[in-house]
Amino acid sequence: MKKRVHEIAELVDGTVVGDGDVEITGVNRIQRAERGDLTFMVGDAYARFIESTQASAIMVPRGFSQGTKPLIQVADPYAAFVEVLEIIKKDIERHPSSIHPSAVIGENVVMGDNVALGPYVCIADDCQIGDGVILYAGVYVGHSSRVGDNTIIHANATVRERVVIGARCLIHSGAIIGGDGFGFEFRGGAQQKIPQVGTVVLGDDVEVG
Prior knowledge:
CATH class of the largest domain: Mainly Beta
Structural class: alpha/beta
Strand content: 25-35%
Number of domains: 2
């Protein structure tokens, strides 16, 4: 990120106090911020760092004007800081934007609009993939599973058969959804595996690490 203080203020409906042309190249907590960083201040616990922080600019509540550094006055400094983080995240993320030629799609798969599949994604038979779904490289979706609209599944995650994932979910790399639980019974001097015939249903807006 490389923006002037006044540009950031415009993005978060803030008011600049001080030099609005200072360049911001990063973000951090007020205690750890360095030159070039934007930080935020909420409450007395943070206010005591106003003079000592190395940050180049600080988001503060409206009406607060102490200190010598450029300030961005906003209604809610924490919420405004999160808005800036969202902007940075969009700048650094590189989602797949199309269906890679190496992706494997089974039979009777229903695909929504604007689906993006990274290299070597495998979708088994009879799956339903919603609008705007993004599957990163190496994702496997087992047969008869459903993935809801605008869900993102990161690289090498596994969605087992008959799993249902809701809309706007975020599944992180390497996660396994629908794998066997601990289903064993000690009989006849040995552990007997109990067949796992259930499934997993994730609602909307779920994040799995």
